[in-house]
Amino acid sequence: MPDLRSRPYHSPIRQQQADETRRRILDAARRLLLERGYDGTTIESVAREAGVSPQTVYATYGSKRGILAGLLDRARFGSLYLEAVARAKDTAGPVERLRLVASIARRVYDAERSELDLLRGAGVLSPDLLDLDRQHEQRRLLAQAPTVESIARSGRLRPDLDAVTAGDVIWTMTGREIYRMLVADRGWTSDRYEAWLGDTLVNALLAPE
């Protein structure tokens, strides 16, 4: 008879409670950042606003920087992002996958713009945001690996490119700086940016059929 004690226990109710606690902490932190700024927002004040203990905040996010990361991740990876990722997983064709990469990049950067403006307006120091951005960029590079592998398996990758170089191209072209230059600085619409990025990735990475 199997030892049931060795099996991990997953409680949907407990997971739902944990998700709700995270939401309350982030909502509370966002309100306080708007009202008091970064320096005036403490872990203790966030805990009071969220109706939890400071220990719960520390256990959930670790620090104020962890809360900042949580706010940015919530903005970046919302429902539109998840829908686009789900479509990408069900898409086999390399052209369609690259166009979905462009769609995902557009949704992430559209969503994070207001959150970044909030954090900068609340007096969050550049070093804090810079450190979080480095972590995000590393995660972004890793998250794009399945797309690169899929294109390489399809046989459509340009013969002068290897998978590592293709990954570097995707990572570079989907970077925030290009989005900022075209959408924020040059006034492109998000739709135009997404269409251009999709075309650029297809032309840069795929060999003609």
CATH architecture assignment name of the largest domain: Orthogonal Bundle
Radius of gyration: 20 Å
H/E order of the elements?
HHHHHHHHHHH
Q: Can you tell me the overall shape?
A: elongated
The residue-averaged pLDDT reads 86
* Total number of beta strands: 0
Low-pLDDT residue intervals, each spanning 5 or more residues: none
Major β-sheet annotation: none
Structural class: mainly alpha
Number of helices: 11
Instruction: Look at the structure and give the CATH class of the largest domain.
Output: Mainly Alpha
Helix fraction by DSSP (H/I, runs of at least 4): over 70%
Share in β-strands? under 5%
User: Under CATH, the topology of the largest domain is which?
Assistant: Tetracycline Repressor, domain 2
What's the number of structural domains? 2
Query: Termini distance?
Result: 56 Å
Please give a handful of descriptors for the protein shown.
209 residues; mainly alpha; Arc Repressor Mutant, subunit A; Tetracycline Repressor, domain 2; 2 domains; elongated
Please provide a written account of the structure:
With 209 residues, this protein is mainly alpha-helical. It has two domains: 12-62, Orthogonal Bundle (Arc Repressor Mutant, subunit A); 74-205, Tetracycline Repressor, domain 2 (Orthogonal Bundle). It is 76% helix and 0% strand. The protein is built from eleven helices and no strands. It has helices at residues 12-36, 43-50, 54-61, 64-76, 79-89, 94-121, 126-143, 145-154, 163-173, 176-185, 190-205. Helix 5 runs antiparallel to helix 6, helix 6 runs antiparallel to helix 8 and helix 6 (94-121) packs across helix 11. The longest helix has 28 residues, at 94-121. It is elongated and about 60 Å long. The N and C termini lie far apart (56 Å). The model has no long low-confidence stretch (mean pLDDT 86).
